[in-house]
Amino acid sequence: GFTLKTRYATGWNGSLVVSNYRIVEDVARQANLPQNRSDGGPGSVTRRDGTGWNTAELQTTYTPSEGDFTGGRHTLAFGLHRNRYVLDSPTRTAADWQRSEDTLTQQYAGRTQVTALYAQDAWKLRDDLSLTLGLRHERFDAFNGSQYGRFMLAACPATLPPGSVCTDNGTVPPSVTLVRNPVYGDRTLSATSPKASLAWRLADDLVLKGSYGRGVRFPNVEELYNGTVTATSETLSDPDLKAERSDAFEFGAEKDWDHHRLRVSLFHDDVRDAIYRQTDITVTPTVTRVSNVDRVRTRGIEFVWMAQDLLARGLSVDANLAFTRSKIVSNARDPGSEGMNWLRVPKVRANLLVAYRPDDLWRGSVGVRHSGRAYNDVRNADVNPNVYGGVSSFTFVDMRLARKITDQLELSLGVDNVADSRGYQAHPYPGRTVFTELRGTY
Question: For the whole model, what pTM was predicted?
Answer without folding.
Answer: 0.84
